[in-house]
Amino acid sequence: QVQLVESGGGLVQVGGSLRLSCAASGRTFSRNAMGWFRQAPGKEREFVAAINYSGGITNYADSVKGRFTISRDNAKNTVDLQMNSLKPEDTAVYYCAADRNIRYVAPIATDEYDYWGQGTQVTVSS
């Protein structure tokens, strides 16, 4: 059974930093893209960042470019999201996702991902 478990969320002040981590189990994702999405109350789930299997291709939402960094450790089957210069509008539940297809790219669409974690809350206070 595949599981994605996020950790690292919490409450942080504006301008602060958090590092989210996602640990995968049940299968290896070393040949698959992984991504982070978020969902704020009353809004649809939106793309944040994605990374291809090797880490050589990354994509970011315009709203987080220059502030967030996605990385992965295939030996540990993990993907991280370093979030700096946090803003109140970054407040959301953050979800880790994994693509079960072997592809070179780092997809940004929600429906490109097959496995999802339960989410971790990030709250940025002003």
Q: How would you state the average pLDDT, rounded?
A: 96
Percentage of residues assigned to helices: under 10%
Rg, nearest Å: 13 Å
Low-confidence stretches: none
Structural class: mainly beta
The number of distinct helices, counting runs of at least 4 residues, comes to 0
What does this structure look like?
This protein is mainly beta and 126 residues long. 0% of the residues lie in helices and 47% in strands. It has strands at 3-7, 10-13, 18-25, 34-39, 46-51, 58-60, 68-73, 78-83, 92-98, 115-116, 120-125. Strands 2, 4, 5, 6, 9, 10 and 11 form a seven-stranded mixed sheet that branches. Strands 1-3-8-7 form a four-stranded antiparallel sheet, with no helix packed on it. The mean pLDDT is 96.
Set down the secondary structure blueprint:
Blueprint: E1 3-7, E2 10-13, E3 18-25, E4 34-39, E5 46-51, E6 58-60, E7 68-73, E8 78-83, E9 92-98, E10 115-116, E11 120-125
Parallel strand pairs: 2-11
Antiparallel strand pairs: 1-3, 3-8, 4-5, 4-9, 5-6, 7-8, 9-10, 9-11
Q: Main attributes?
A:
126 residues; mainly beta; seven-stranded mixed β-sheet; four-stranded antiparallel β-sheet
